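Most newcomers find our protein records easier to grasp once they have seen one. A learned vocabulary of local backbone shapes supplies the integers on the structure line. Here is such a record, shown just as it appears in the course material:
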Amino acid sequence: MLWSLASLAAGLALLTLGADYLVRGAISFANRMGMPPLLIGLTVVGFGTSMPELLVSLQAALDGSPAIAVGNVVGSNIANILLILGTAAVISPIAAQIPNLKRDMMMMLLAAIMMLGLGYWGVVNFWLGLVMFILLAAFLARVTHTDRHRMTAEEEELVVKLAGWKEAVFMAGGLAGLFLGANLLIDAATAIAREFGISEAVIGLTIVAVGTSLPELATSVVAAFRRHAEIALGNVVGSNIFNILGILGITAVVTPVPVEPSMAAFDIPFMLAVSIALIGLILTAGRIGRGAGIAMLAIYTGYVAWLF
């Protein structure tokens, strides 16, 4: 058991560090190729910060643990809203002052509704995965076209250049850390699940989901302390879109991913309900205050307690 816990911690550390170095190297390479900061933020950073979820879900599906793969996506989306936004809002209230936020939230809602349908269908096969990935690509193309003249302070920070050898080391080392971390995390998570008699779905929805969301959590907490908590909102909405359409879509293209009936009956509808509640709060109040943040953390605590 101690070895499994050590492997779990090592896997999480490697995933976090690997994603960080991969993103830094990829941003520098994208700048060298002349990509605009907005496109870098949407693609390089978006995929880079989602690489832990992607590799963990892909590895789990290939290892015959699809419940961890789906649980990772669904659990990450729930944690993104309730845990990450809740934490950020408690630190600093979040004002919904992001251009085209409504468009992005509607896309997040569409992805969540698609996930609900996939849950009732029972399996995400190659063709469904391909459609999801094409939909994500079309959305990114649309965003790039409509927002191409916008440059936020966050995007200006993406103008970074490293020496060529550093780019190669950062990207290669980051990918190696991600692959090794994903393997360690999946092996440890399945071992712990068997040791305690916990289902792989619950492990995927909780430990794995929160673990792979650590980069987003760290980014959001730092942004909140700097009084830029709205960055957390943009990150969460974008991450939730990527998780369903990109991560589950790519995983399904590689190998079919069955969805457990228990997850389709409760966890996916809960994820959709949380997404609708977030959109309703933003549209009516225009912000996420500290009171709402505390309530979100309380709901997430109750959800995790109910799972166990």
Q: What stands out?
A: The radius of gyration is 18 Å. The chain has a mean pLDDT of 83.
